[in-house]
Amino acid sequence: MTQTISKPTTLYEVDYLLWTEETIAKLKARDFDRVDFENLIEEIEDLGRSQKRELRQRLKTLLEHLLKRLYVNMPQEFNGWERTIREQRQQIKLELMDSPSLKSIWEKSFDLAWEFALETVRDDYPQFIFPNTWQFDRHLDEILNIKFWEMK
């Protein structure tokens, strides 16, 4: 069976950077009749999805390292885990500064990130026991600021 590969036919498919530059120029010139709205709408929708993914991924990494720092007794690793915790917290704060509306999906993002973080640390450290639920406050400010391992 022969499969045909269609050649790109639009500027969007051929040269994405040039497409963005031309789209910006058309919008600035208010040349709306020539704007590729279909792809522009798709790109704007993807920007929102991308920001949500970024938040969930950083939160997952943060929770993984918090779990390791709290429940994995490997003192030689504590410093590295704490550095990652600081970095992820800073990056999440920056994301939230750029897009405060991301706070509206915090709870849902936390639940999903927790599920994946827990799965990862359990796979990586089967000899240690991790709780099924987050044992501390899960509010945004607390997750981004408290050294939970000092409370234990």
Largest sheet: none
For the terminal residues, how far apart are their CA atoms? 63 Å
Given helix and strand content, the structural type is mainly alpha
Determine Rg (CA atoms, Å).
Answer: 22 Å
Strand content: under 5%
Arithmetic mean of pLDDT: 92
Count of DSSP-assigned helices: 6
Short précis:
It contains six helices and no strands. By secondary structure, it is an all-alpha fold.
Describe, in plain words, how this protein is organized in 3D.
This protein is mainly alpha-helical and 152 residues long. It has a domain at 51-150. It is built from six helices and no strands. The chain has helices spanning 11-14, 16-28, 37-71, 75-98, 106-124, 140-143. Helix 3 (37-71) packs antiparallel against helix 4 and helix 3 (37-71) packs across helix 5 (106-124). The relative contact order is 0.11.
Jot down its keywords:
152 residues, mainly alpha, 65% helix, elongated
Topology:
Blueprint (H helix, E strand, L loop, with lengths): L10 H4 L1 H13 L8 H35 L3 H24 L7 H19 L15 H4 L9
